[in-house]
Each structure stands twice: as C-alpha cells, then as structure tokens.
Amino acid sequence: MITKTEIDKLAEIYEVQDFIKDDPIQFPHKFSRKEDIEISGFISSLVAYGSRKVFIKKLDSLFEIAQGEPLNFILNFDEKLLGGFNYRFGKAEDFAQIFYILKQLYSQDGGLSELYKYAYNTVGTVGKIEFFKIVTDYFYSRVKDGVGQGFYFMIPNPENGGAMKRMNMFLRWMVRKPPVDFGIWDFIPASELLIPLDVHVARISRQMGLLSRNSNDFKAVLELTENLKKFNPDDPIRYDFATFGYGVSHPAK
C-alpha cells in the first residue's frame, strides 16, 4: 500500500493552481459571486463526462450562450436560448428541464446551497444515499414529461448504487478550500466529503492498494474514502488530486 508520505507528495504536486486550466473547475473560477460559482460549477459537473477536450469545448459554448452570467441566465431562462445545444446523452430538452428547475430553485427556494444544506441537515452525513436522494428528488419531482436518458444521466438516481462521481466532485469544489477548490459552503465539513470515483481514480487506487472492491460503485466510494481518512481524517478528499492527477499523467497502457 502507498504510504502517507508518498500520497501526500502526489497531492502537493497536483493540488496547485495550474491544475485549474485543464479541468472543468476552470469555469466556476471565471466568477466571484457565490451564486455564479455554484451554478457554473453545478452545470460544469453535469457535463463532465466523456472526452475531456470535447466536454470542455461544449461548456465553453454553453457559457457563451449564458453570456458569462450564470445566475442571470438561470433566473431568466427560456429554452429558446439553447437553440439545439446538446452533448452526448443530453439533448436540448434535457438541459432545458434542468435549467427550468434551477430557475425555480434560485427564484423561490434559496439556491443550490440551501438545497444541499437541507439535505445535509436532514441526513447528517454525505456518506448515505439518502443525502443524494434529497437533492435528486428535488429535480425528479419537478421534471416534466419529454425528457430523455440525458436528464437522468446528468441527474443520476443514487438508489441505483452508482458512484455519484460528478455530484461528489461538485461538492469537493464547493466545500474544500483553495487554491483549486472554493470553500464557499461551510455547512459541510471537508471530513464528510466522498471521493469522486471514476475508472481512472479507481484504477490508480487499486494500484496503490487503497481499493479492493472490483466494482466502481457507491460501496467502492465508501471503501476508498475510509482508507483515505487513515492518511488525513480531516480532509481525505485532498487525495483526489493524488489519484486523479496521477491517473491522467500515467494513463493505462
């Protein structure tokens, strides 16, 4: 198993400002207002799958449509603004429904921070499916007929047992402190965060002896997070930079 000294060194290498420019976190870093950071971060996390170069190009296009004003875009959203915007599974109507629901969330219900705060205060931990279910149920209970696979891919059902990778990544962005993350949400401690698990992080974690489970599912997320807490119980997801960064620079052969 990798040692604390070794994994700390990797985290130091990759948790630097230079990490931002090639990562989807670059988009919320364009803003300073809390609501703009939240909305741009949430949208960026939804689209962060597939080819990195492709989805970053798509996000560039989407934020051009938003004219660099995420909150204003959401509060005044009209699906005509999207034109035919789509990305892989997500069709224009899928994005439209997500944005309409965000419009209600920000105009009536306090925004993303209030939704996640309610989920955390209700469940008491991020480490349970029920936490994520409160968030996704907000969207599921308001979506209209006509959406397709893309809506449910971008807002996945936690009861299916998936890793909830993109939602955990968004939480890391909002909760952990700079230089890469934002630290604008103080109602969830960094010690409660879960690793954003994808195939690359899982592969490297197994090579490091940190993950024994074969499936890249929610149980694997919990196992890996618990092992990372042995290195740093207050901020285990710091090592997302160690595993993810190392995996990107050392791809599978």
Please summarize what this structure is.
The protein has helices at residues 4-14, 34-47, 52-65, 70-75, 92-108, 112-123, 129-140, 149-154, 165-175, 199-207, 218-229, 240-249. By secondary structure, the protein is mostly helical.
Elements, N to C (H/E): HHHHHHHHHHHH
Gyration radius over CA: 18 Å
Stretches with pLDDT under 50, minimum 5 residues: none
Structural class: mainly alpha
Provide structural commentary.
It is globular, with a radius of gyration of 18 Å. Helix content is 53%, strand content 0%. The protein is an all-alpha fold and 253 residues long. The protein has one domain. Helix 6 crosses helix 7 and helix 10 packs across helix 12.
Top keywords for this entry?
0% strand; 253 residues; 12 helices; mainly alpha
Layout of helices and strands, plus pairs?
Blueprint: H1 4-14, H2 34-47, H3 52-65, H4 70-75, H5 92-108, H6 112-123, H7 129-140, H8 149-154, H9 165-175, H10 199-207, H11 218-229, H12 240-249
Helix pairs in contact: 1-12, 2-3, 2-9, 6-7, 10-12
